[in-house]
Design brief:
Layout: E1 5-9, H1 17-25, E2 29-33, H2 36-45, E3 50-54, H3 62-72, E4 78-82, H4 87-95, E5 100-103, H5 108-146, H6 150-166, H7 173-197, H8 216-227, E6 231-236, H9 241-247, E7 255-264, H10 271-280, H11 284-290, H12 308-318, E8 325-330, H13 333-341, H14 344-347, E9 351-356, H15 358-368, H16 370-375, H17 379-391, H18 394-404, E10 408-412, E11 418-419, E12 422-425, E13 438-441, E14 451-454, E15 470-474, E16 478-481, H19 486-493, E17 497-498, H20 504-507, E18 508-516
Parallel strand pairs: 1-2, 1-3, 3-4, 4-5, 6-9, 6-10, 8-9, 12-16
Antiparallel strand pairs: 7-18, 10-18, 11-17, 13-15, 14-15
Helix pairs in contact: 2-3, 5-6, 5-7, 6-7, 6-9, 9-17, 10-12, 13-18
Length: 518
């Protein structure tokens, strides 16, 4: 604290000596002057961490001095000291971006509190957050050993993702390493949980099974549509809970959060499988059987996600839902602007669906583009890039327009994504699917202890490209590489964000219901 330098400007500075001695005793360096002219000279010659400025001074008033100080030191917090609480004076001060104000007579503890709030708040919050996580560590560890249901795992994942966001700014490298270790341990245990339970979820009647992709619309979305006059469903590809945590404050003044929930993405946690299941209300195997002309296996040419709207209309018809539907898929950046121009189409529908592919594009760009790798080198940077995109996105403009029209908004995804760093060798023929987090083919060679293997795809409601097809899924932060040219692929794909496999980030998908503020 003794590094914090304060400038106190007051025409009666001699009367404030007890207060200044009080601050010095607390470890602060305090310099003083008694007029605005000297204050400007001092501020121009050296930096201060905080300035306390009297509003009423002869010659140049505090309100006249303030903008000149801000011109010289725009980021230095200024506390205004005033005898008056008159609204016009406060408006002028706040308009000039004061950090805080204190009403005379000045109380030394009031000054100290304001200093801590404006200079030390980040440090104090960081220290408290670090201490809070250290005390929570044991509780999360106990929860890991006791987790038995998907609901247990959503609770664990929510806590870990929340701490990850909270500790982003922590200067304590050690506590971030502890959190990374605990999250890695959690993903290992979650992978075992999925391996032991996944196939049962398709037939489970006990109530412990999660809502899977093919049931999302029927069980979570349509009930919201039935209860509200206008609903817009926004699916952001690759959207994770930690990314929701860093954008929800941007929406705070526009929407109230009515529900913050989760559902479970099916395997593979890939767009071709999970998103088609969401919109069709069917498993991939059922789609392939019922609509073979609309389903393409991994080894077949052509787009794998071209029929989402067709799938959704068929599902609505099969359930007897007669909503006036509008469907829009944003795969190019200029498409968002076009939707803003034609927003009345969304307003006029009972149920609107907007698929937004930006995060998927960002994820792939990070793999392929060096500059994006630099900008999103880890999870914290990836979240920061997500927040920056969202703040300046057409999607935020669209959501603001929807709030103005009273639309309830559902925000979710078809699957998440995870940063991979551990290569696992597999072998396959040229028909094997190229995805790094799952493989399907007929001649796969692998270590059964390193993967979740499904040798009978019909048990996982997955289609087969041939009679001996097998699916394998990577755990935690693993990614698949072939024995040939291994080093090249490891260097290229290590620390990239991928999806298709088994992790909390990929499978535990946020489901958010937002109500416009009245």
């Amino acid at each position: 604290m003794n590094d914090i330098k304060i400038l106190w400007v007051d025409d009666e500075i001699d009367l404030l000596k007890p207060h200044i001695l009080f601050l010095k005793a607390k470890g602060y360096e305090v310099e003083t002057c008694n007029n605005g002219y000297d204050a400007i000279e001092l501020v121009s010659s050296r930096p201060f961490d905080l300035i306390i400025l009297d509003e009423m001074m002869p010659g140049m008033t505090g309100l006249e001095t303030l903008p000149k100080i801000k011109e010289l030191r725009p980021t230095t917090p200024v506390i205004m000291v005033t005898k008056s609480e008159e609204e016009n004076i406060m408006d002028k001060a706040v308009g000039s971006k004061i950090a805080d104000y204190i009403i005379k007579p000045v109380n030394p503890n009031q000054v100290l509190l304001s200093i801590k709030k404006n200079v030390l708040s980040h440090q104090l919050v960081t220290e408290q957050t670090t201490a809070d996580y250290r005390s929570e560590f044991g509780k999360i560890s106990s929860a890991l050993s006791e987790a038995r249901t998907f609901a247990d795992w959503t609770s664990i994942y929510k806590k870990l993702a929340t701490w990850e966001v909270e500790l982003t700014e922590s200067s304590d490298e050690g506590v971030r390493e502890i959190l990374a270790y605990q999250k890695n341990e959690a993903n290992n245990e979650f992978s075992k949980f999925v391996r032991a339970n996944y196939l049962k979820w398709f037939t489970d009647k006990s109530g412990d099974a999660p809502v899977l992709s093919q049931n999302l619309m029927r069980e979570k979305v349509f009930p919201v549509v039935d209860e509200n006059p206008k609903v817009t469903f926004i699916l952001i590809d690759n959207f994770r809970y930690d990314q929701w945590r860093v954008i929800n404050h941007i929406l705070h003044n526009i929407f109230d959060i009515e529900k913050e929930d989760f559902y479970c993405s099916i395997l593979p946690t890939a767009t071709q499988y999970a998103r088609n299941a969401v919109f069709s209300g069917l498993t991939p195997l059922a789609i392939d059987k019922i609509m073979p002309d609309l389903w393409k296996n991994d080894n077949e040419e052509g787009g794998k996600n071209q029929y989402e709207e067709d799938f959704l209309r068929r599902q609505l018809q099969s359930l007897g839902k007669s909503y006036n539907l509008y469907f829009e898929k944003i795969v190019r950046l200029d498409a968002g602007k076009r939707l803003i121009d034609t927003i009345n189409k969304v307003y006029n529908a009972d149920f609107s669906v907007i698929v937004y592919n930006f995060l998927d594009i960002l994820s792939h760009a990070r793999t392929e583009t060096e500059i994006i790798r630099e900008l999103a080198e880890d999870e914290a940077a990836y979240r920061s890039l997500t927040r920056s995109w969202f703040e300046h996105s057409d999607l935020l403009v669209i959501m603001k327009l929807l709030a103005e029209k009273g639309h309830t908004v559902i925000l979710t995804s078809d699957h998440g994504t995870i940063r991979v760093d551990n290569p696992v060798k597999v072998q396959g023929d040229r028909e094997t699917s190229p995805n790094l987090r799952y493989k399907t083919g007929r001649n796969l060679a692998f270590n059964n202890k390193e993967v979740f293997a499904i040798t009978k795809p019909e048990e996982a409601h997955l289609p087969k490209s041939n009679i001996t097809s097998t699916y394998i899924f990577a755990y935690n932060r693993d990614f698949f590489v072939y024995p040939t040219n291994t080093n090249h692929y490891v260097r290229y794909y290590k620390n990239t964000f991928q999806h298709g496999g088994i992790s909390m980030e990929e499978m535990i998908v946020p489901f958010i219901v937002l109500k416009p503020k009245r």
